[in-house]
Design a protein that fits this description.
Layout: E1 8-13, E2 21-27, H1 29-40, H2 49-55, H3 69-83
Antiparallel strand pairs: 1-2
Length: about 90
């Protein structure tokens, strides 16, 4: 992203069972509002212009593609770490 490009933000929702889905995406003022709302609700933020560009090509409600699973897993792990939380591991036998 160059200095002349507008800010871009993408919000994801992860329920712990299914692939994360895109819940919001925008540039400029909309991106600023996405970030403001995330901060207001204590949602961890991670700056990654290249990832935001890739995710912004997805439709709202669309699951992330498998090719991005590893990088998104790292983002989710980062979010847990900065939030002081641990993921819930579900027993597949229950």
């Amino acid at each position: 992203m160059s200095l002349n490009e507008p800010m871009r933000a993408v919000a994801l929702k992860y329920d712990g069972e299914n692939a994360p889905v895109v819940t919001a995406t925008g540039e400029g003022k909309i991106a600023e509002e996405i970030v403001r709302i995330a901060r207001e609700h204590g949602i961890p933020l991670r700056e990654d212009a290249m990832l935001a560009e890739l995710l912004s090509e997805l439709e709202l409600g669309e699951e992330i593609p498998q090719i991005l699973y590893r990088v998104i897993a790292e983002v989710i792990a980062f979010a847990y770490l900065v939030s002081g939380k641990a993921p819930v591991i579900k027993d597949k036998n229950s």
